[in-house]
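Re-run with default settings, no changes from the original entry. Doing this only to confirm the output is reproducible before filing.
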Amino acid sequence: MRINRKQLLSLIVTTSTFANVSCVAEIDSCDLAFVLSGDGSFDNAISSATVNADSVKDYTHVGIVEICSEGEFILEAEPGAGVTRTPLQEFIEKNKNIDFYHVNGSFDKDNVIMKAKSFLGQKYDYTFLPDNGMLYCSELVYESFVDRSGRHIFPANPMNFLSKDGSLDNFWENLFSDLGMEVPQGVPGTNPNDMSKSERLTLVKSISLSDNQ
């Protein structure tokens, strides 16, 4: 099931709510919703460690679109809340600046959604470690998207928490100190900016929700 243009427009409270609804392509289940960086310390720390010269944009969060008979949702792993199923309109209003991408290639959409929903209720993974019963945002996408051979569609790469000058942002330093663990530098993992570079992705819609409504 897809959201057609008429259904998407129903999400708009007023005609001026969205500053940029330029794409005419439809949003489909298993599309990815990439959120552009905000002003918080967590976003700033992610940006300093993951944005580089070949980055598409500055993304700090990503979720999976689910379109079903119950409505439109985003399956996401969010700090504090963990893995949740967020109504699409709420997700848009909360995150304000979002790019939606189709994921191209051979995979079973129903299986992806089913796998993502199997993680609902898991805690957010502040340790950024694999296979520990917790998930961060791009890890949810990584674990949910497998091809018909059972292989992960998106690669895991060595994690980086250092800024371009080699320093460690205070947010990371305080976080891992509070957790009593070493910074997981180089541990296999994912992040929204690396994921957005995948050749499997095609941008289909950009939405910008004004703060001044």
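The CA atoms of residues 36 and 59 lie 4 Å apart. The beta strands are 2-3, 27-28, 32-36, 59-68, 71-78, 82-87, 97-103, 157-158, 188-189, 201-208.
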